Amino acid sequence: MAVTSRATPSRPSAARPVLGQNQYGKAETRVVRITRDGATHHIKDLNVSVSLSGDMNEVHYSGSNANVLPTDTTKNTVYAFAKEHGTESAEQFGIHLARHFVTSQPSIHRARIRIEEYAWDRIEHGAEGAHSFVRTGQETRLAQITYDGERWEVVAGLKDLTVMNSTNSEFWGYAKDRYTTLPEAYDRVLATEVSGRWRFGWADGEKPAPDWDESYEQVRKHLLQAFAETYSLSLQQTLYAMGARIIDHRPEIDEVRFSLPNKHHFLVDLEPFGLSNDTADSAVYFAADRPYGLIEATILREGCEERIPADLTNL
Ligand SMILES: O=c1[nH]c(=O)c2[nH]c(=O)[nH]c2[nH]1
Questions:
Q1: Does the annotation mark 264 as catalytic?
Q2: What is the DSSP string of the chain?
């Protein structure tokens, strides 16, 4: 029930149920810090959950918020601390946060900070710069084989391959109407979780089949390198570059389709906390999980038929 008066909060009568263990805080603040060492960038990608407890009887019994540091504040603290301590280990980062909450708020006696850290490897490629990353951990490899007694259709693919460029991405010059509020971006983070399928030209059991494993490794390498090396004016352009590079380098493949969610990273406004974000040496982002742009397209070898379904979840 909402509090409707400003009356002094009261304790429950002896007959009323007693409050047991309780805790609160903001769960899963997704914070990404990009540290810039010239053209070499470093990523710290954390999922931080704060859980606080202490003198919280009144807020439960009567709704008095006097002892409650808002969960929104705990989220802001994570962002601000990411700017100030974000290159440190997750353990050390958690120690800073926990100490801050317990020592700065008399009503908070215990802070539990849980952190998941996502690791990123650099994408090896031939171009300048060190700002392209692939999230550590194996993607899922996919295959679909169809045979009607005469002809074969083999489609290979992958999903859950997460990649990021921490620079060399822009988005501007787009159509605008009365509902457009998106600011034009001249240097943004471009991140996506690649879902792709590619169809082999091989359809005839008499002809030698491609080396499937070698083909998979090469397609994966080419799509990563195209992602890393493309100076991107849109995710659509990057998608086309990835598919075109596969078609150009892998003669066994006739058709490629990608479904690429645009995993938006929004700069956090740290001005209210006296910190300037997006400086030459570092920037802190909020990694949003939804809604997301979804960019999908097929790239074909000239003269080949489009057979991979538009909705990759049907494959
Ligand atoms: O690369 C992009 N393509 C879009 O179509 C689009 N739309 C949008 O809001 N942001 C972006 N980014």
A1: yes
A2: ----S-PPP-PPPTTSPPP-S--B----EEEEEEEEETTEEEEEEEEEEEEEEES-HHHHHT---TT---HHHHHHHHHHHHHHHTTS-HHHHHHHHHHHHHHH-TTEEEEEEEEEEE-EEEPP-SSS-B-EEEESSPPEEEEEEEE-SSBEEEEEEEEEEEEEESSSB-B-S----TT--PPPBSS--EEEEEEEEEEES--BTTSPPP-HHHHHHHHHHHHHHHHHH--BS-HHHHHHHHHHHHHHH-TTEEEEEEEEEE--EEEP--GGGT---S-SSEEEEEE--SS-EEEEEEEE-TT----S-SSGGG-
CA of 38 to the centre of ligand 1 (A): 27
The ipTM estimated for the assembled molecules is 0.99
pLDDT per residue as tens digits for the range 52-76: 999 999 999 999 999 999 999 999 9
Q: Of 35, 71, 73, 298, which residue is the catalytic one?
A: 71
Indicate if 162 belongs to the active site. no
Binding pocket residue ranges, ligand 1, CB within 6 Å = 171, 182, 234-236, 262, 293
Residue bearing the CA closest to ligand 1, atom 7: 293
